[in-house]
Amino acid sequence: MKKRIGILTFHRSINYGAFMQAYSLSHYLARKFPDCVVEIIDYESKTMHEHYMPKISFMTFRHPVVSLKKRKQYDNFQSELNKLSLSKEHFEFDGNNESFTAYLKDHYDVVIVGSDAVWNWIKRGYPNPYVLDFNGPVRMSYAASAYGMDYLKQNEIDLSNFAKVLPRYRFVGVRDSYTADFISEITKGTVVPNINCDPTFFLDLKEVAKDAFPNAGDPLSELKKKYHIPLNKKIIGIMESDTRAIVEIRRRFNDYFFISLYNFTRGADLFLGELAPCEWALIFGMFELTLTNYYHGTLLSLVNETPVISSDRKDFSKVHLGKIPDVMNKMGLSDCCFVGGTDAANMESKMKDIIDNRHSYVNRIKEGKKILLSERDSFDRAIDKIMVE
């Protein structure tokens, strides 16, 4: 009888990074264990399902084009779910659910929670299914994160209960230094977490291209054709929530075509808010460089070996090491990461240096990727051992 691996993560979030990390981890495990069943457990929080549902608001009428693109984005996410190997049963609830726990016990030999901020329970509450508080299948985490949740401010009973569950995991893998400190602190050092790279670092872009454009030889050409992107202009990609600096920069780089992703950005030549997840993962490959303050915007640039200038302006990062600088420091790219943000002049200076020395930056990215990919090794050793038991 085939062994069954179930992955519990945020695959239904209308969030490009959440979708692609689920895609990458599930596809990787399916390739690694071709004689096993690997599927994503189709659970979602009821609260988060309602959060992501399209809504009519004042902004719908103020920015109708942007709103239409966002609605198209939602529809594209729903359509692209067929590119994930989902469980036949779908579950939607908050808290814990006995029938769901029974389903996990009956259907899986191994349950893996992660990647993403599955251990940040601010929005989803505690307890929740991502804790894996049950007996039965082997429990593991891969690149799980509590990032964004200040554990020092959480309910002591919840923290204590979570700390009691963790020793029953066969492998505890976390995504960032903050979560590693969190686990070590609440378990008083009895659980030693392993730091794992985000699954998008081992995304197979050829596989993604086949899913996005099954009959195309060159996926980037297909993207340009589909979205009317000029063929003869160099492109700068933007995935930014703050557009003020971008407007000023746009004036100084008139020879480039600016494309904004996810958020509408004033000054961009084209806004692609409607991309399907696989298209989004590929489009970074056509950029000369990317400007972003998003974690997975940073990662997908690096996966595509596109130089990136990242900003981390989150208040959480003023107290704890941010997840963007955490990655960029490890990869030897700290000079491309601005913590606390930067002004247009500094951004312009860095952009010019990258454009003038792009080959050197690409080589640095290639070397940095090797460092990050090595963080998967501890997980590989653990699951290889489990699968032959």
Characterize the structure shown.
The chain has 389 residues and is of the alpha/beta class. It has two domains: 164 residues, Rossmann fold (3-Layer(aba) Sandwich); 168 residues, 3-Layer(aba) Sandwich (Rossmann fold). Helix content is 42%, strand content 16%. It has 16 helices and 13 strands. Strands 3-2-1-4-5-6-7 form a seven-stranded parallel β-sheet, with helices on both faces. It has a six-stranded parallel β-sheet with strand order 10-9-8-11-12-13, with helices on both faces. β12, α13 and β13 form a beta-alpha-beta unit. α8 packs across α11. The longest helix has 17 residues. The model has no long low-confidence stretch (mean pLDDT 93).
Q: What CATH architecture of the largest domain would you give?
A: 3-Layer(aba) Sandwich
Question: Could you estimate the helical fraction of the residues in percent?
Answer: 40-55%
> Which structural class best describes the helix and strand composition?
alpha/beta
| Oligomerization state | single chain
Tell me the fraction of residues in β-strands, as a range: 15-25%
Name the CATH class of the largest domain. Answer: Alpha Beta
With strands numbered from the N-terminus, the spatial order across the biggest sheet is: 3-2-1-4-5-6-7
Number of strands: 13
Radius of gyration: 21 Å
Shape: globular
